Amino acid sequence: MSTAKISVRGLKKSFGSNEVLKGMDVDIAEGEVVCVIGPSGSGKSTFLRCLNKLEDITGGTVTVNGIDLTEPKVDLNAVRQNIGMVFQHFNLFPHMSVLQNIMLAPVELKKLDKAAARAKGMELLKRVGLSEKADARPASLSGGQKQRVAIARALAMNPGIMLFDEATSALDPEMVGEVLQVIRDLAAEGMTMVVVTHEMGFAREVADRVIFMDAGVICEEGSPEAIFSNAAQPRLQEFLAKVL
Amino acid sequence: MLRLPPLRRRSGGTFAALAAFFTVVFMLLGIGGASALSVPAPAAAGTAVQHTGVEGKKFAIATDTTFAPFEFRDGSGNLVGIDMDLLNAIAKSQGFEVDIKSLGFDAALQALQSNQVAGVIAGMSITDERKKIFDFSDPYFDSGVQMAVAKNDDAIKTYADLKGKSVTAKRGSEGETFAKSIAGKYGFTVKALADSATMYDDVKAGNSVAVFDDYPVLAYGVSQNNGLKIVTEKEQGSSYGFAVNKGQNQDLLKAFDTGLAELKANGEYDLILDTYLAKTEVTEQGSFFQLVADSFPALMKGLWLTMVATVLSLAIALVLGVLFGFFKVSESKIMRGIATTYVSIFRGTPLLVQAFFFYFGLPQMTGQPINVLTAGVITLSLNAGAYMTEIVRGGIQSVDPGQLEASRSLGLSYVTSMRRVVVPQAVKIMTPSFINQFVITLKDTSLLAVIGFAELTYQGQQIYASNFRTGETLLIVAALYFIVISILTQLSNVLDRKFNK
């Protein structure tokens, strides 16, 4: 009934006896940029990782492009090809060159032959401004460069959705800008994105909607304006007072 | 000493437990050893029973593997000894042929009882108990316990000189029984050791002042310059005889007696005994380098088997390690359980016990005899496989979990992710441990000596059991291991550097 790109209903996630997500309902429309903010341990990352089922889902449903990920027979690999994910610690493959990192999925999944994958990889590298690093090993890159490569890698399968899990948290401050710029560009192109971030200024700037999570539930959500300027919830006010 | 080699005792009584144990050892040794040892029983053994004469017939005769000086292998691997020479001489004089099967003492008796062979000659004491199931020839050798001391020891000449001293004897042997029976009277203590070579070394080292051992065994050792001298007369004598099944092969038995009488009459009998027992000055010990040269062929044969067992075991262990290693990191509780159980069992029990189990235990339980190489390789590969499993598990788990997540998030399957992302990184981490396991397994092959696998250590034991040069022989054996392991380690490191840059 929903036309949402991502539809989350009653999502619960427990690690053992520790319930991290306590029932979340979210709809994310095509082309929408949703930023998720909240204190450490509030469940932001876990929520994000449930969206491509990197975490097993304890209860509720997550529907992506109309496919319910909690169905036992769902082809997760096919679903994930349409969801790019960028991690806090980049998780580049250290035994491959930058270009090989990007080419791996298209070639292994037989979406592209090697030549086409190479062309695609070079195009993506150009887009993130790292064409000259194609043959470099990840270890020789700076943090900001690594994360830009990771974004290029996540884009290699032409996903309709991108998930960012604190993509700038592990970066030196002077490198945050270059990564945010790439994300900003993606937002401008109309990519559906869920961005877990501590960069409040960035969230305010690019988000169509901001979700404030606390203690495993959505505490408040709304436009950046509503969240950052007219916070109603005392917990949100408290949080913003600390981070802003 | 783990193995009781060549000069072990062969009367019942206290030795029964060990005898049962070695039954299987030597039976399997016979089956699994060199092809010359494992010829199946020919029809001749059975059919010969029906004929009156022995001329032109061929008889399968079973014997021990090593019981110097009655049967043992010379430097070139031929079975020689008093039994062998006597039997061959008798066969020649009586016009029959023999097909010698070196099975081990207990296995030889079993083969005889099951009519797989026509007779047994294995330095076997004629006892009343054995007479119930076997017919014996006339005694061809009179044994007995004697005492020997170090060659340069002039203080100990009689039992009375032993007061307050310590002597040694072979565990479970008549020598031990005799020594203990007089220990109280003469006021000395008896220390039991596992084999003759060790006992002689103990006396030469001064830990014990004297050794009680069987006359022929002692005499042979002295003739081989084992550094001892015999100082007392034979005690508790027993006689050795050639045996056939009760009521069967009587013509063969008769021919043996006739031949034996002839040999005694014409002096050939004494000649044969002197060959092995007389103290000769010609058999002075050669130089160390002579020893190296003499033992080289046998040691190379052993080294080859060591390498064969190592390579086969490691290849299988690698497969097991990869398989169970992946089980261990899998999401399935059942798979993890299987792998954990496997590792616990083989890491939680001694390799030696495993070797015994696969060699003796399993065949007894299944009734299916097992080749010594097969048993050895099964043991080593299952054991090394358990350690390999842990190496593989450790290698995979030491790869950042974010690597697998990143790969899975791209839509790559678990298998593809492992193959392209995790395993290549894990292999790099695992390589040094693999090389380490390789070295460990190579050295562990030496434990297979106890089940009679003729690898390098076993060959070394065989050599010093007959030449009594324990220290020097072990030095050569150790040097060979060291050289081979050093070379292979260097090679592995070079390959590691080349492929795991």
From TrEMBL, chain A:
InterPro entries linked: AAA+_ATPase (IPR003593), ABC_ATPase_HisP-typ (IPR030679), ABC_transporter-like_ATP-bd (IPR003439), ABC_transporter-like_CS (IPR017871), MetN_ABC_transporter-like (IPR050086), P-loop_NTPase (IPR027417)
Protein EC: 7.4.2.1
Annotated keywords: ATP-binding, Nucleotide-binding, Transport
Example of a GO MF term: ATP binding
Protein's UniProt keywords contain Cell membrane: no
Presence of keyword ATP-binding: yes
Reaction equation(s) it catalyzes: a polar amino acid(out) + ATP + H2O = a polar amino acid(in) + ADP + phosphate + H(+)
Enzyme class: translocase
Domain ABC transporter positions: 6-240
Name by which UniProt lists this protein: ABC-type polar-amino-acid transporter
